[in-house]
Amino acid sequence: MPPHEGLVHLKEYDIKDSNVELIGSDIDHKVKYNSAATEPAWNDGQIGTQAGLHIWRIENFHVVPLPKNQYGQFYDGDSYIVLYSYTVKDNDGGAADKLGHEIFFWLGSKTSQDEAGTAAYKTVELDEFLHGAATQHREVQQYPSEEFVALFPRLSIKSGGVASGFRHVEEETPKEITTLLRIFKHPAAGRAGSLIVHEVEPTWRSLDDNDVFVLDKGEKIWVWQGNKSSPMEKAKAAQVVHDLTLAKHIDVEVLSQAEARSKIVVDLLGGRDVDQLSFQSARPLQATGHGDSKSDVSSRPKRLLRISDASGQVLFELVKEGQSIRPSDLDGKDIFVFDTGKKIWVWEGSHATRSEKASWIQFTQAYVRYIQDSDANPNAAVTPVAKVVQGHENSAFFKAIAL
Q: What residues does the Gelsolin-like domain cover (predicted)?
């Protein structure tokens, strides 16, 4: 069945439903802009006027600014909004008299529906406040985009979260094992210094050959260096250990996987009967720590789909599949969904109609369900999704469509 058939049968809410259904009418835009004009988070005199990075966490349906000393630190039980504003270059490479904006709403693997929905809605509201010129990104913890990772020299993801209106994520009661941290350079990292510190399940199954792990057992800290880990990851682990030991003076032992003694760490993580000669490489950003290497976002054929109401009703049609997609394939009167195989871009033409603008979320979500079911890929729902507006496209979009 072609990917544009049967795409409007919605299923029960889960992470792929994190984009709220929005009307998109003129009055809807006015309501959102008026709401944005009274949102304290957007009205600090800097948003939309100054270049820089701003981060907010969703707390009890409110958008709460994150202290700058916590930038790059995220909790898997929370949802966040990240705004990156930058000076746009003119044709001669100089600074133009305007700002470009990238808005990311980041969803932790254990965030609640109320937090995810609030983050999605407030992202649209922030875009309205910025006059609809921003690129919007949905970021899922397990598979962050290259653009998101590149914002942070150090990215840390921990277990836990804040209280919300419907649930409270609490830290597990410490048992014998306190914390296991995985230190690695994400494949999507755009800068040499972009490293991620990710708290994973404290089990030997979380270990892999490519990364460095820090095991904090309370009375002692162990550093386990995978055979294929890089000097950068080892150096970052040393920094993490330094930070952990500032408040408590305990022993630290660093072990390379190649050393026979490093089996101690595997034993401490419940793997006494495990042969540690090799561990399967972990997936890019492991949410559960179970080492399921088959859960990566698989590459698909490139597809270009059109959302158009030119016939009198809004239709979702396949334009191209398995072919090169070029800027000339886009029409400013419609909206296009471009699936690169690893990321989904939504391009909104400057002359798209109100009904077309109102339906892109519904059709994009339906398309995600299609590739999840037809490609037998249960993790298609975590495919990064970004929306750009004609005339305000970012360099990542032009790079993707030119490949």
A: 62-148, 198-245, 328-397
pTM: 0.69
Dist. CA 13–CA 261, nearest whole Å: 47
Mean model confidence pLDDT for the chain:
79
Give the Cα separation of 32 and 113 in Å (integer): 21
The first and second tokens of residue 29, run together, are 């835009």
All residues at 6 or more sequence positions from 267 whose CB lies less than 8 Å from its CB, including other chains: none
Same domain membership, residue 213 and residue 123? no
Residue 2, token pair as written in the block: 């072609």
Q: Which helix (H) or strand (E) is 245 found in, with range?
A: helix 231-245
- pLDDT score for 303: 93
- Whether 6 is covered by a domain: the verdict is no
Q: Say if residue 272 is in the same domain as residue 387.
A: no
Give the SS3 label for residue 238.
helix
**One domain, residues 147 and 210:** no
The answer as to whether 3 is a domain residue is no
Given a cut of 70, whether residue 366 has pLDDT beyond it is yes
Distance CA 46, CA 36 (A): 14
Collapsed DSSP state (helix, strand, coil) of residue 38: coil
The whole-number pLDDT of residue 60 equals 87
Domain shared by 54 and 119, yes or no: yes
Contact 83, 101 (CB under 8 A): yes
Strand intervals (E) in 201-310? 212-216, 220-225, 251-256, 303-308
For 39-87, how does the pLDDT look when each residue is reduced to its tens digit (9 = 90+)?
888 988 889 888 999 999 999 888 999 999 899 889 989 999 999 999 8
The CATH number of residue 118's host domain is: 3.40.20.10
What is the tally of structural domains in the chain? 3
Per-residue pLDDT tens over the stretch 173-182: 445 557 888 9
**What letter does residue 183 receive in the DSSP assignment?**
E
End-of-domain residue from the set 140, 169, 198: 169
Compute the Cα dihedral for 378, 116, 368, 12 and give only its sign.
positive
pLDDT of residue 284: 52
Residue 43, domain extent: 14-169
Number of Cβ atoms within 10 Å of the Cβ of 271: 17
